[in-house]
Amino acid sequence: MKYMMFVCTDTEPDRNPDAAPDIEQWVAERDANGQRVTGSVFAPPSAATTVRIRDGELLLSDGPFAETKEVIVGFDLLECADLDEAIEVARAHPMAYGGRIELRPLVD
């Protein structure tokens, strides 16, 4: 089953950031065992463009639409047997310590 893993910042990171694993090691291990299909880091929110159609008119906004201190900074597409496996992958990600991870199953 495929899961989209959103990697997000958080206003309340773990108080012991030294406990976080190395991101390069996390990526290499997930790539090697086939759990990570692809992933990337996003440009900063200031580079975002929001696209909307209202009353047939195209509306463009610079930056993210939502005003929030927490932002999505990257993603990984996972291939896992089930949610339990996806949670184990997410809990080992460094941003589980300094940010937060959101998992969403993809609908076939």
Count of alpha and pi helical runs:
3
Structural category is alpha+beta
Mean pLDDT: 91
Strand content: 35-45%
Shape: globular
Strand order of the largest sheet: 2-5-1-6
Write a structural description:
It is globular, with a radius of gyration of 16 Å. It is an alpha+beta fold and 108 residues long. The protein has three helices and six strands, in the order βαββββααβ. The protein has a single domain, classed as Alpha-Beta Plaits (2-Layer Sandwich).
Keywords:
Alpha-Beta Plaits; four-stranded antiparallel β-sheet; 108 residues; single chain; two-stranded antiparallel sheet
Describe, in short, the structure shown:
Helices cover 21% and strands 38% of the residues. By secondary structure, the chain is of the alpha+beta class.
Write the topology of this structure.
Elements: E1 2-9, H1 23-32, E2 36-41, E3 49-54, E4 57-62, E5 72-79, H2 83-91, H3 95-98, E6 99-105
Antiparallel strand pairs: 1-5, 1-6, 2-5, 3-4
